[in-house]
């Protein structure tokens, strides 16, 4: 058995890639939606944003509650699976699509179909797709930034150094001992 090579955060770029593959929290999602809404429509997004693990046939959804032609509540639900397949850039396109629904609800007080002229014009303005990419045939290029995504994280019980790895490994911490040393055996967390 070998000691596990210690890698610095800069050394192999693992940490930065790890960060880019981190799933945004719902708070981060909310900020992203708000930023896009401000950018394209000049007003904040007055609603909630959620991830959905179950949403797999569509990339996103915009739910609204209405009363007397007034928008009461809006909720954008985004498919986590879609994000994991296509990445952040594609997710932004979906958010823009959902914002198009939201904007039309808000400004006209009614639901617009995907083939309505108003909806299509808005999508052109936003540069958003009318339909999401299929989830069954992921674009391999979209995932390229996540190739090095660590799956297993090992920790040295002595010094606490973390070793993210894509495969299961057995070994000891190379910081605590350059040679294999069972005293510093890495533990999967
Ligand atoms: Zn739609
Ligand atoms: Zn150690």
Question: What features would you describe in this structure?
Answer:
This protein has 189 residues and is an alpha/beta fold. It folds into 2 domains: 1-12 and 149-189, no CATH class; 22-146, 2-Layer Sandwich (Zincin-like). 33% of the residues lie in helices and 20% in strands. It contains 4 helices and 8 strands; from the N terminus they run βααβββααββββ. The chain has helices at 14-20, 26-41, 80-108, 117-126; strands at residues 3-4, 48-52, 60-67, 70-79, 152-155, 162-165, 172-173, 187-188. The strands form 3 sheets. A 3-stranded mixed beta sheet has the order 2-4-3. Strands 6-5-8 form a 3-stranded antiparallel beta sheet, with no helix packed on it. β3 (60-67) and β4 (70-79) form a beta hairpin. Mean pLDDT is 82; it is low at 8-19. It binds zinc ion (2 copies). Residues 97, 101, 114 line the site of one zinc ion.
Percent helix among the residues? 25-40%
Task: Give the distinct bound molecules.
Answer: zinc ion
Gross geometry: elongated
CATH class of the largest domain: Alpha Beta
**Which residue ranges are poorly predicted, with pLDDT under 50 across at least 5 consecutive positions?**
8-19
Query: Could you tell me how far the N terminus lies from the C terminus, measured between alpha carbons in angstroms?
Result: 20 Å
Here the CATH topology of the largest domain equals: Zincin-like
| Whole-number tally of structural domains | 2
Q: State the CATH architecture of the largest domain.
A: 2-Layer Sandwich
The biggest beta sheet is recorded as:
3 strands, mixed
The averaged pLDDT comes out at 82
Structural class: alpha/beta
CATH level-4 homologous superfamily of the largest domain: Metalloproteases ("zincins"), catalytic domain
Would you count the extended β strands for me? 8
Name the helix and strand elements from N-terminus to C-terminus, one letter apiece. Answer: EHHEEEHHEEEE
Gyration radius from CA atoms, angstroms = 22 Å
